[in-house]
């Protein structure tokens, strides 16, 4: 039995490789209750993040996790999704108060409570979030929500090199400026975005930034960030306070995948997903670019660089065995580099099938404990079999 939301995941999580029954959760799409004074919302798993935010706006609230796609909240919990705002609000696991879960034998459990904190028992929320439907089927979620900020400012900071851009990110984080978003878009990405979106952004390594807060505090944060950017030879920084201009900026970032798909007909997109400790990020991205150039591959590097998570977008001719081998070799190299620095093979996309082969190397003896947990919850392996574990 394989739970299915919108099918926006990237690692083959919902493909029934071993056959079975697909459980379509999309009709479980009700916002059950908004507890606005507790900053909690209860939802069914088929609710999408944009649907939820439309409802929350009536209360002056919003849900922050933004993976780009309009994914379902059940699917986002199953893969521990994150995205552009995780630098400030954390990942999906940080937003979950409680889950209602149906286990393999039909038992219904709750994994938490509606209390803001608890020291009672094992942390079952953390166990279920990211389990990709292998331990149980999520049928309801209680999630943390936030007040809509008074003011927002977006910025585009242009640099000569990726190294300068990423070093500036590290410095801004070290300064304690409470950034909402910190995204890297490299030269190749901006070339494709300009063609697809009709924009005219300078085609240099660029940081897309967003500041939120109250008016007076925001002004201080923006001025402090401008000084830091200048220290790292920022060529130009443009600020956008107008809502339409801000949306245009983030559209360019979120629609990069579509830009590459539309701009490369006949090829399939592959996206890598590594995450490293922040101080290794400049080295990781430099190493990735050198590897792409050495292999003669046309790849774009983007990422949620405020938390060390970065991606390479590749367009592959699936009829060309050499291109497929090269793409696989690049992914292996990126993952090996990340693991050698204490990072992870997947920052936000999850394991599914694509990253299963790296689990033993990343987790060591803990991998065996994970398999025992799987056996305990699902002794007959009927829940999304073949995922996470090889």
UniProtKB/TrEMBL annotation:
One of its GO terms (biological process) is lactate catabolic process. It is an enzyme of class 1 (oxidoreductase). Residues 1-148 form the FAD-binding PCMH-type domain. The keyword Lipid metabolism does not apply. SUPFAM superfamilies: FAD-binding/transporter-associated domain-like, FAD-linked oxidases, C-terminal domain. InterPro entries: FAD-bd_oxidored_4_C, FAD-bd_PCMH, FAD-bd_PCMH-like_sf, FAD-bd_PCMH_sub2, FAD-linked_Oxase-like_C, Oxid_FAD_bind_N, Vanillyl_alc_oxidase_C-sub2. Keywords: FAD, Flavoprotein, Oxidoreductase, Transit peptide. Pfam families: FAD-oxidase_C (PF02913), FAD_binding_4 (PF01565). It comes from the Bacteria. Its EC number is 1.1.2.4. GO terms for molecular function: D-lactate dehydrogenase (cytochrome) activity; D-lactate dehydrogenase (NAD+) activity; FAD binding. Its cofactor is FAD. Belongs to the FAD-binding oxidoreductase/transferase type 4 family. PANTHER family: D-LACTATE DEHYDROGENASE, D-LACTATE DEHYDROGENASE, MITOCHONDRIAL-RELATED. This is D-lactate dehydrogenase (cytochrome).
């Amino acid at each position: 039995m394989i739970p299915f939301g919108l099918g926006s995941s990237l690692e083959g999580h919902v493909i029934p490789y071993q056959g079975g029954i697909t459980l379509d959760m999309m009709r479980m799409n009700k916002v059950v209750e908004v507890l606005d004074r507790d900053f909690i919302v209860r939802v069914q798993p088929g609710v999408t993040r944009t649907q939820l935010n439309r409802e929350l706006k009536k209360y002056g609230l919003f849900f922050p996790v933004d993976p780009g796609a309009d994914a379902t909240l059940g699917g986002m919990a199953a893969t521990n999704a994150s995205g552009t705002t995780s630098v400030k609000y954390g990942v999906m696991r940080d937003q979950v108060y409680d889950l209602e879960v149906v286990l393999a034998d039909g038992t219904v459990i709750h994994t938490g409570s509606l209390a803001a904190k608890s020291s009672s028992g094992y942390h079952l929320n953390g166990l279920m979030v990211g389990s990709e439907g292998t331990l149980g089927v999520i049928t309801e979620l209680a999630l943390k929500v936030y007040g809509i900020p008074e003011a927002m400012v977006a910025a585009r900071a242009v640099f000569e090199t990726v190294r300068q851009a990423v070093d500036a990110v590290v410095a801004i984080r070290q300064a304690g400026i409470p950034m909402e978003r910190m995204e890297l878009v490299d030269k190749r990405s901006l070339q494709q975005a300009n063609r697809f979106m009709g924009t005219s952004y300078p085609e240099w390594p660029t940081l897309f930034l967003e500041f939120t807060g109250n008016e007076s505090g925001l002004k201080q944060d923006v001025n402090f960030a401008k000084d830091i950017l200048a220290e790292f030879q920022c060529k130009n920084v443009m600020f956008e306070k107008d809502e339409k201009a801000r949306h245009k900026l983030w559209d360019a970032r979120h629609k990069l995948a579509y830009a590459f798909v539309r701009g490369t007909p006949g090829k399939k997109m592959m996206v890598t997903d590594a995450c490293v400790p922040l101080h290794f990020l400049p080295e990781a991205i430099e190493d990735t670019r050198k590897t792409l150039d050495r292999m003669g591959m046309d790849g774009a590097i983007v990422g949620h660089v405020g938390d060390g998570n970065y991606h390479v977008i590749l367009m592959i001719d699936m009829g060309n065995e050499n291109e497929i081998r090269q793409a696989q070799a690049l992914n292996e190299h990126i993952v090996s580099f990340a693991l050698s620095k204490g990072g992870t093979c997947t920052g936000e996309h999850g394991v599914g099938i694509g990253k299963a082969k790296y689990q033993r190397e990343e987790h060591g003896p803990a991998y065996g404990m994970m398999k025992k947990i799987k056996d305990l919850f699902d002794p007959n392996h009927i829940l999304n079999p073949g995922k996470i574990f090889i």
